[in-house]
Amino acid sequence: MSDLLWQKPGVTVDAQIQRFLAGDDVVLDREFFLHDIVASTAHAQGLQRVGILSADELAGLERELAALADDFHAGAFVLDERFEDGHSAIEARLTERLGDAGRKIHTGRSRNDQVLVATRLWLKEKLARVAALSREVAKVALDRAGAERGLPIPGYTHVQRAVVSSAGMWWAGWAEAFIDDAVRANDTLALVDCNPLGTAAGYGVNLALDREHTTAALGFSRMQVSPVYAQLSRGKFELAALEALGSATLDLRRIAWDLSLFTSAEFGFVALPAQYTTGSSIMPNKRNPDVIELMRATHASVAAARTEIEQLLSLPSGYHRDLQASKGAIFHGFGRGLAALELLPALLANLEWREDRLRAAIDAGMYATDVAVEAAIAGVPFREAYRAAAAASESAGQGRTPEASLAARTSPGAAADLRLDALRARWDAL
Ligand code: ARG
Q1: Dihedral over Cα of 313, 325, 116, 199: its sign
Q2: Which NCBIfam families does the record cross-reference, listed alphabetically (predicted)?
């Protein structure tokens, strides 16, 4: 391993203890190494502005930081156990290439604000992706809601047939859900979008750092003001980000559940394109919807990451090494969550309804609520009308059509009017 930044003369660092301290940290740091490099560049620019670096030193640092990013991209520089962490690796490389300019880069910063700034930059990108994917899902759902508003499907409560619904109603439900998820991701992005760089170890530093410069250079919309809060917010903003992701993966879990039921032979409502299915190693007849099952499982990873961070946050104020464990959680949670959400728009765009099966699943009993409400409109007290419809059982619904039932509830101006224009306006504003 390269020299530890904090090593004291005459004190040997036990290898086993060092391995425990390091864990998989340096490997995890690969995930936001480029963000750390970008933030290091902004920090170096700030140091030149307050006279710590000369113009030449800054030019050298900018050049070497860009070269490091290129080498990392190309695989010519590997971030591995030779270094304690990504932060040390940057300083080691700059020192090796530039000498004193490299030894100056850490003036006025701590790895504590360095890891915070890299995490916030990384999460901003991931939350923007959650918002964009939720928006894409909502678009597919909105388009299909408009096109399929007249296709009747059974509406369930308790997984028991309840009333006539439509593919349009089903899609509009998911459209509104994923619009909310996009709003939530954007709102959380705005919360995460602040610059902790310059707060050092959590108590500021006796150097007039140009925090306005680093805030603007890194594209943050504001500065995180209190150095103490910069540390207190670690874990908390990661938790908020995972909650925003979880809002989308929870909806994903529920839509996957619907599709898991609907693609079964017993329901037979939906045909999945073959590429979303797998086979069995023993049962030659099987076509299994593994993709939707793994989508359904995704929320477990997101929720586990959330829980891990929440458990870590039982800490007094200030930095603690415990906080390092939040990185693996967010990388894992966002890795799984985004991988699943990436597949969802195309899957939804490609699934096909089987109209014969949908119509066959609508029975006359599903008009009972319509019958009771019609009698109530004619002046019969609702409870009496309800009892009469229940007593008449299936015969009350004889001769009715799904189309008429849907028209009475979902046509323009009716109580369950799909109001796709209102949803589209919210979607446009995302
Ligand atoms: N890997 C560390 C983390 O993620 C970086 C900060 C180390 N700071 C310290 N004081 N040991 O928290």
Answers
A1: positive
A2: argH
The H or E element spanning position 152 is: strand 152-157
Mutate to test the pocket of ligand 1, among 85, 88, 90, 111 (most ligand atoms within 8 A of CB): 111
Per-residue model confidence (pLDDT) at position 256: 98
**Predicted TM-score of the model (pTM):** 0.95
Q: Which atom of ligand 1 is nearest to the CA of 111?
A: 6
**Along the chain (430 residues), what's the average pLDDT of each consecutive run of 10 residues?**
74 84 92 98 98 98 98 97 95 98 98 98 98 98 97 97 97 98 98 98 97 98 98 97 98 98 96 90 88 97 98 96 96 98 98 97 96 97 96 87 96 95 98
Ligand 1: lining residues by beta carbon, under 6 Å: 25, 85, 111-112, 115, 319, 321, 323-324, 327
Å from CA of 256 to ligand 1 middle: 39
The CA dihedral of 85, 91, 95, 101, to the nearest 10 degrees, is 180
Nearest CA to ligand 1 atom 5: 111
- CB 398 within 8 Å of CB 125: no
Residue 154 β-bridge partners: 164
CATH architecture observed for domain 15-107: Orthogonal Bundle (1.10)
Going by CA atoms, what residue is nearest to atom 2 of ligand 1? 324
Q: In 3D, which of 274, 297, 278 has the Cα closest to residue 288?
A: 278
Query: What separation in Å is there between the alpha carbon of 324 and the centre of ligand 1?
Result: 6
DSSP string, 51-79: TSS-HHHHHHHHHHHHHHHHHHHHTSS--
Cβ atoms of 405 and 363 within 8 Å: the answer is: no
Q: What is the pLDDT of residue 10?
A: 80
Q: What is the pLDDT of residue 1?
A: 67
Q: Please report the atom of ligand 1 found closest to the CA of residue 327.
A: 4
Instruction: Give the CATH superfamily of 112-204+224-360.
Output: Fumarase/aspartase (Central domain) (1.20.200.10)
